[in-house]
Design brief:
Layout: E1 5-6, H1 10-15, E2 24-29, E3 35-40, E4 43-52, E5 55-63, H2 69-84, H3 89-110, H4 114-127, H5 139-148, H6 181-191, H7 196-215, H8 231-236, H9 253-261, H10 266-278, H11 282-286, E6 293-294, E7 299-302, E8 310-313, H12 316-329, H13 353-362, H14 370-380, H15 388-395, H16 402-407, H17 412-430
Parallel strand pairs: 1-2
Antiparallel strand pairs: 2-3, 3-4, 4-5, 6-7, 7-8
Helix pairs in contact: 9-17, 10-12, 10-14
Length: 441
């Protein structure tokens, strides 16, 4: 069927309508033979039609209300030029759209703020599983991330004034695309002057976060993958060395016990003694519930950040001082209440450092941190020549040797033999009786 052509004009386009009973109809231009106006139900648009590789090719140029007739002719000629040079106009259009979308995506990615990715990272930590331990991340691990990125400006829990911003707060309002080795180097140089240990911890958290960013499909390539391996960055990372003097010596035990037992708060007094005599982490002991203590079989179940849970002996003196708390708190068998309860929001002991520092001052002893009491247990155990593997198992350290990891499974009674030996020796240095009538204060 021959195609009737007319020169497209505004008036002809206005009068051109779809014949009743048809789905589409064409008005072909006589000037540019590849151009036509197509009418469908409710719409009229310019279309381009030609032949590419022996097959009919048809493309929509645009609505007649959006395109002028001369512009539509120019576009039709351009599309025909592509065909004449062996290019499929449909593919060329798709590639152009993809390129524009890619540029727009890169612009959006360049504006992603550190805090937005950080919040998503924290959500994943709450629900995800550690690749190292194959277990959910501990509440303490998540709390450390929140603490290190705190913006500050809150009322201090102890003392007056407002809290200062934590190290990672510096990055929160910056676009991820601005994170560079130079920026991190300057940040480390500034922060390490006043809080080197906290800065070192913050850097390790930042390093892990940036690795996560590069593995995330939405953030890949925004930050260089090797940014934390830059030579200048690594040079500025503070050394987190253990405090050499953060440990009780044999000759200091008597004075320490005397002042700790004199503390007015029996819960804190007992907590500090249990911390030293078990070598556990401060939060592990703070999180003890009464149903974790088995007085009948002399055992204590501890929620472990490494293994998830471990059971250690309940030694005679620790059993005695905990029994005093049972009486004062009127605990019933199987009670799930906190052992070391307080008036805090969580209901358990939160900040015993003030009382501990007071006891150290009264005893005229150098400062010892709560973690230093854990370090003291491991150090003092050498006086009674306890096998290092036994000490590590009681303290909840990860096995450091192949034999320890795969071939040592010490029963509780074997641990009890050595644990009681450690406790007996420590009490001998303090002149404290082990009998059950001992007063914890």
């Amino acid at each position: 069927m021959a195609i009737t052509r007319q020169k497209l004009t505004f008036e002809r386009l206005r009068k051109f309508k779809l014949t009743e009973g048809k789905s589409q109809e064409f008005l072909w231009d006589s000037d540019v033979t590849m151009l036509a106006c197509r009418a469908t139900k409710g719409t009229k648009a310019f279309i381009f039609q030609s032949v590419f590789l022996g097959k009919t090719l048809r493309m929509t140029i645009g609505g007649i209300d959006d395109w002028r007739i001369d512009d539509a002719r120019t576009e039709a000629r351009r599309l025909q030029t592509l065909i004449d040079t062996g290019i499929d106009p449909r593919i060329a259009k798709a590639e152009k759209i993809a390129a524009v979308e890619s540029r727009q995506t890169e612009l959006r990615r360049g504006k992603i703020i550190f805090s937005a990715a950080w919040e998503e990272y924290l959500k994943e930590l709450k629900t995800g599983i550690s690749a190292k331990t194959k277990r959910p991340y501990s509440p303490r691990y998540l709390a450390d991330h929140i603490r290190l990125s705190d913006r500050g400006g809150n009322a201090r829990k102890v003392g007056r004034g407002l809290t200062i911003a934590a190290p990672l707060a510096f990055f929160l309002d910056l676009p991820l695309s601005e994170i560079s080795p130079t920026l991190i180097t300057e940040w480390l140089a500034r922060e390490r002057q006043t809080r080197p240990t906290v800065t070192a911890n913050a850097y390790r958290v930042l390093r892990t976060f940036l690795k996560w960013v590069n593995d995330h499909k939405l953030y890949q390539s925004i930050v260089p993958s090797d940014i934390t391996q830059d030579r200048n960055v690594r040079k500025m990372v503070p050394i987190s060395a253990s405090k050499v003097d953060d440990c009780l010596q044999k000759e200091q035990l008597r004075d320490w016990f005397e002042e700790v037992r004199r503390l007015s708060n029996p819960v804190i007094s007992t907590y500090l003694q249990v911390l030293l005599l078990t070598g556990a982490r401060r939060e592990e002991i703070a999180s003890l519930c009464w149903d974790d203590i088995d007085f009948k079989w002399s055992s204590m179940r501890i929620r472990d950040k490494v293994e998830g849970e471990r059971t250690i002996p309940l030694t005679p003196y620790v059993s005695t001082i905990l029994s005093k708390l049972v009486d004062s708190q009127k605990v019933k068998p199987g009670d799930s209440k906190w052992v070391f309860s307080s008036n805090s929001k969580s209901g358990k002991i939160v900040e015993p450092r003030k009382a501990h520092n007071q006891a150290l001052q009264q005893a005229n002893l150098p400062h010892i941190s709560l973690h230093g009491l854990r370090r003291s247990f491991g150090t003092l155990s050498e006086w009674v020549e306890v096998p290092t593997g036994v000490v590590a198992q009681i303290m909840g350290h990860k096995p450091s040797a192949l034999a320890e990891k795969h071939y040592r499974r010490r029963p509780l009674d074997l641990l009890r033999k050595w644990h009681e030996k450690i406790e007996t020796w420590i009490l001998e240095q303090t002149k404290i009786s082990k009998n059950k009538n001992v007063d914890v204060r």
